[in-house]
Specification:
alpha/beta; 17 strands; 2,3-Dihydroxybiphenyl 1,2-Dioxygenase, domain 1; 2 domains; 307 residues; binds fe (ii) ion; globular; nine-stranded mixed β-sheet
Length: 307
């Protein structure tokens, strides 16, 4: 019951055609649908092994950044339960019938989290399948191009008061904290939260409210990170960091930027987290190893924020 996992993110891009070409031909997502409305064009994309209509939405806007982050809930009744808890916590919500906020969308409860981010809880997004049969399927569809991640993995956001947001996600939304980074004075600098038993479905880093650090897509192993880095180099895409290892989560990743300036990550690894596991804590003097385990320090661009 409750939230299952990250469903999708909506990001802003000024040049919708350039961004769509990047996400389809280099990242290797699949364009499912596009719509034009009074605000501009919206493009709906998904990883090849995702069954639902979209996991990434590109919104044509004047700048870059994050418009919304959405989580998938298991049952329709979870929307009622979570909406009541969010309202009881003093946060106002709105309810949207299936198909009204976006083509293919399920029923959605929308609110603004204490971090300043628009958050959607969604049930029943339209299913389009993964282009493979349910009877004796092959291991993947033909014709994949680019990095071709099978699915979205997590999102990494920024806000001023990590502890307030972490408490809200734990107490109201039912997330479990897997790891945190604490300053010397005890102030929470980062927290990693999950509902899917992975190391994180969402994480927060200290910064301005509403800040967007990156959206990550899953790849199956380290070799896929190498292939992704090769593709970045070949196509002249700016690599921010990696392929490297994170100390926090023990995952491996490659950071790079889309043409608008939104940071992407290809991510793999990490560990299983049980609900009765205790969180891991990193201290401020080890924040470099927590983020970039091999380098042991943050690079210049890491704290760059898109809000
Ligand atoms: Fe990440």
């Amino acid at each position: 019951m409750g939230i299952l996992r990250l469903s999708h993110v909506e990001v802003r891009v000024p040049d919708i055609e350039l961004a769509t070409a990047y996400y389809v031909e280099l990242v290797g997502l699949i364009e499912v649908e596009r719509v034009d409305d009074e605000q501009g064009t919206r493009v709906f994309l998904k990883g090849w092994d995702e069954h639902q209509h979209h996991s990434l939405v590109l919104n044509q806007r004047a700048t870059y950044g994050l418009d919304a982050v959405a989580f998938k809930v298991e049952h329709a009744a979870d929307l009622d339960d979570l909406q009541a808890k969010i309202e009881a916590a003093g946060v106002s919500t709105s309810r949207h019938a299936a198909g009204t906020l976006a083509p293919g969308s399920g029923e959605i409860v929308r609110f603004t989290a204490p971090s300043g981010h628009v958050v959607d809880l969604e049930h029943g997004q339209f299913q389009v399948g993964n282009r493979m049969p349910k009877l004796n399927p092959p291991i993947g569809p033909e014709g994949l191009i680019g990095m071709a991640p099978p699915r979205i993995d997590h999102v990494f956001l920024m806000c001023e008061h990590i502890n307030v947001t972490t408490d809200f996600f734990r107490d109201v939304l039912g997330f479990r904290m897997t790891e945190q980074i604490l300053a010397d004075d005890g102030y929470q600098l980062a927290s990693f939260l999950e509902r899917s038993h992975s190391t994180h479905d969402i994480a927060f880093l200290t910064g301005p409210d509403g800040g967007f650090h990156h959206v990550a897509f899953w790849v199956d192993d380290w070799n896929e990170l190498r292939k992704s880095a090769d593709l970045c180099a070949y196509h002249g895409v700016t690599v921010d960091a990696g392929p490297t290892r994170h100390g926090a989560t023990r995952g491996c990743g490659l950071y790079f930027f889309d043409p608008a300036g939104n940071r992407n990550e290809m991510y793999t690894g990490g560990y299983w987290f049980d609900p009765d596991d205790e969180p891991t804590t990193w201290t401020e003097n080890e924040i470099g190893r927590a983020i970039f385990y091999y380098q042991g320090k943050l690079n210049q661009a890491f704290m760059t924020v898109h809000s």
